Every structure is written in structure tokens, then in C-alpha cells.
Amino acid sequence: MTLNSERKMARALIEASGLAFEENIEVMVGIYEDEQLVATGSRAGDILKMLAVIPDYQGGSTLGELVTELVMNGQRAGHESLFVYTKPEYAVSFQSLNFFLLASQEKVALLEYGKGLATWLASKKELVRSGLNGAVVVNCNPFTNGHRYLIENAARQVENLYIFVVREDRSVFPFDVRYRLVEQGVRYIPNVILLDTSRYIVSGATFPTYFLKKDDPVARIQMELDITLFASKIAPFFGITRRFVGTEPNCPLTGAYNLTMQSLLPEYGVDLQIIERAQTVTGVISASRVRELIGQGDFAALADYVPATTLTYLESVAAKAVRERLQEDEIGKKA
User: 310 and which of 21, 58, 280, 306 could share a cystine (Cβ 3.0–4.6 Å)?
Assistant: First the structure.
């Protein structure tokens, strides 16, 4: 049996199980009985996906054998923790295989194999403070005067303000740069505590749609999982009872995220505080506008949009690659 024929059999089983086949995988495994494929599953990075078992083999040990092989394969590849998204009704099956439920909403549950979340939280134990605690979750691509304004206002309303910088590296500015610019930009605020989100923010790169229906609101589902994970696991550990966001006049997706937080956070004892966005004479300060100005080479205008620490970096030799990429983006818009 060729590799191509095995892949075709796996695809047929996956699609017969009501799932969509996705090409972006690193490893695919299968279980056979008398040359018949009875179960298959795949791994993409630290995500297990497209797990399918024929009806006659469901409810037995087959799923466990399949998942065990994928977990061992993932661990050999260097992943300490593995994640799986599944339908909520199947979560118990994965919990019986030593997966830990991170978050669940109406259509999707997210589970983790390993002690990644517990280990990450334990590593931050020295950052836990008593008192009235708040949180801001930021990407800062890059850090702007708008971010600084939000953080300044939030810090005045709590005793301790946790700033979570999104670790996922899908932005123009790499995580280490984004984190450093935030650190430099808020150094003068005495009650802020800076840390990253680790892997515990739902990643757009890994969020699967293969078991969702075409008309399912994928963006909303992802938002609800992300907010539930933060509110049910992260906020209680740090004693966070307030989360702060800025108003969002430009991005519908971020605006929808804020509305979803307004709906879900109070269920977990977390209040959402919305702070009016900072503006310049030309309009709202946004990271997207800052990236446009960089691409246009308008560094004089940037002084109204970013702190001196961010501007120093943007003008440095270290930022040359970022500047060139943004300049190419601007040229592409005009082409």
C-alpha cells in the first residue's frame, strides 16, 4: 500500500465522519485491521486534529491507541504539551485519556495533554498580588501612545495591573521586540506587572474549523473560547476582577470581541471596563496607523503616535527589516 493510497483512505474516513480534510499537518497516523483503516488522526505542531474512528470501533480502546501514538509523536518532536479542539460532547473521552479541559463553549471544547497551564501559572506565582487587581491584554504591534494611555488609566483604577503581552508571533514586530517596547514604555508606572500569554490565548493560526459547519460563526467561537479560558483559569489565579479595553471605532472584529467580553466576563466575576481611545489631532491612535506611517517613511508624524522609547527603536538599525517590510506593504497597496 502506497503512502498516497493511505492518505486517500484517511481522507475518505475523515470526510465520512463529517469532518473536513486539512492539508496543513506534520504527521498522520492510522490504525488498521485486516488492511482496513479503522482510525486516523493527525498532528500540526502541538495541535492534534482530524481524529476519526469508524463506528464499529468507537467506544473501545481504539481512540486511546490513536491519541497515545499522536501524543508520543508530539513529545518526540519536542512538544511538552499537546492540544485538541473537539465537540463538547466528546470532551469526556479525552479527559479519560488524561487531557485537561481548558475551556468550552457551545460548539467547541479545548483540552490540553500535559501540565502546561499548571506549570506556566506556577512559574508566575511570585507575581501574584493581593488587593484590587486588573488586567490588560495587548498585542502592541508596536507599542503606541494609545496603549500607554489605556494602561495609565487602567493602572489608576486598581492596586495592581497585569499587562499580558500576546506571545503568538504572527505580527510584523516579533514578540521579543513587542514585549521590550511595552516594558520600556510603562517602566514609570509603579503598579504594573508585565508578563506574556504563553500558549494560553486561542491562536488564529491553530484554531481548527475542520469539524465546524460552514455557517458556524468561527470568529465568535474563537473569541468565546479565548475569553472563557482567561476568565475561568487565568484571572482567578492572579485575583483579577477587572479587565480593561479601549473603545474600538475602526475594527469590527475587535469591537465584536469587546461585546463578547461584556457578555461573558461577568459570569466569572470579572468586570469589563471600557476606556475611550486616545486621539491625536488627526484621529484615533492605532497600531495600524503607526505601521502605515512607518511604511510611508513619515517619522515626523510618528512622534504624536508613539512614545520616545518606541520611536528610538523604529529609527534604529535593529528595526531596518521591519521598516523595509512595511515600506513594501505600502508599495503593494499602490500597485
Answer: 306
- pLDDT band of residue 24 (cuts 50, 70, 90) is confident
| The three grid cell numbers given for residue 212, joined into one nine-digit string | 465546524
8 Å CB contact between 256 and 224? no
Nearest Cα residue to 198 out of 224, 173, 175: 175
Task: For strands 36-44 and 27-33, give the pairing.
Answer: antiparallel
How would residue 201 be classed by pLDDT, with cut points 50, 70 and 90? Answer: confident
pTM: 0.91
Is 212 within 8 Å of 109 (Cβ atoms)?
Answer: no
Across the beta sheet with 160-165, the strand order is 192-196, 160-165, 133-138, 240-246, 271-275
Protein fold of 3-114: Aminopeptidase (3.40.630)
Considering the segment(s) 124-334 as one domain, its CATH architecture is: 3-Layer(aba) Sandwich (3.40)
**pLDDT at residue 1 above 50?**
no
CA atoms within 13 A on the CB side of 43: 22
